[in-house]
Amino acid sequence: MVAPVFGLAVVRGRSMEPTLYDGDRLVIWYGAAPKIGALCVVRLPGRPVAVKRVTRLVADGWWVERDNPEEGVDSWLVGAVPQHDVVARVVCRVWPVLRRPR
Question: pTM score, two decimals?
Fold first, then answer.
C-alpha cells in the first residue's frame, strides 16, 4: 500500500468563484482518484495547472468545469482532461479559515 501524498496549493484567478477565491490555500492529495463533484488540480493544454470541478467521465477522460462562467478555461473550451492530467484532488481549504461576505 502506498501512503497518500499531500501538498499545498494556492488559488490564482477567479474561475472558481464563489467556491474559491484568488489567494485561497488548499490541501491537495496527489494521485487521488477524481470523483464527480470534487475539485481537482488538473493540467489544461497550454496552461498552468488549475483547480476545476469534475462533472463527469467521458470517453476521452474527465470533463471539468469552472464555477464562474465569466472567467477562466474549462472542458467547454479545451475538451476532456485525460486521466494522467488529473494531478490531485482538493481535500479542503485551509486559508482563509473564515471568509467574510464580499
Answer: 0.90
DSSP string, 28-78: EEETPPP-TT-EEEE--TTS--EEEEEEEEETTEEEEE-S-TTSS--HHHH
Domains and CATH numbers, the chain: 5-95 (2.10.109.10)
- Intra-chain end-to-end CA distance of the chain, in Å: 44
Q: What pLDDT score was predicted for residue 102?
A: 54
For residue 90, give the 3-state DSSP assignment.
strand
Residues 6+ apart with CB under 8 A from 44: 50, 52, 73, 74, 78, 81, 85
